[in-house]
Q: What sequence folds into this?
């Protein structure tokens, strides 16, 4: 084989090894970061549970307000209560 072809093959092999090593190093770094966070108890998926429980509490208080509005007599004051409950819904969004 010609020397230029051998040099080209050696260069390609070196580039492939470099890319492979860099890819493995990045994977290990990312995996280690996630592993350390989980070991420390900083699970991002567990953080959404707190937000969901707050939303659930707000929803249940709205249901109580709505059910008390439905059980009351139909008059003009119930219309103002509906606008206040819609303000609460807007505040949650």
A:
């Amino acid at each position: 084989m010609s020397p230029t072809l051998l040099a080209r093959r050696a260069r390609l092999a070196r580039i492939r090894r470099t890319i492979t090593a860099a890819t493995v190093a990045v994977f290990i770094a990312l995996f280690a970061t996630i592993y350390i966070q989980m070991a420390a108890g900083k699970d991002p998926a567990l953080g959404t549970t707190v937000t969901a429980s707050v939303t659930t509490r707000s929803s249940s208080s709205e249901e109580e307000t709505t059910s008390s509005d439905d059980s009351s007599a139909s008059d003009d004051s119930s219309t103002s209560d509906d606008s206040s409950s819609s303000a609460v819904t807007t505040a949650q969004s």
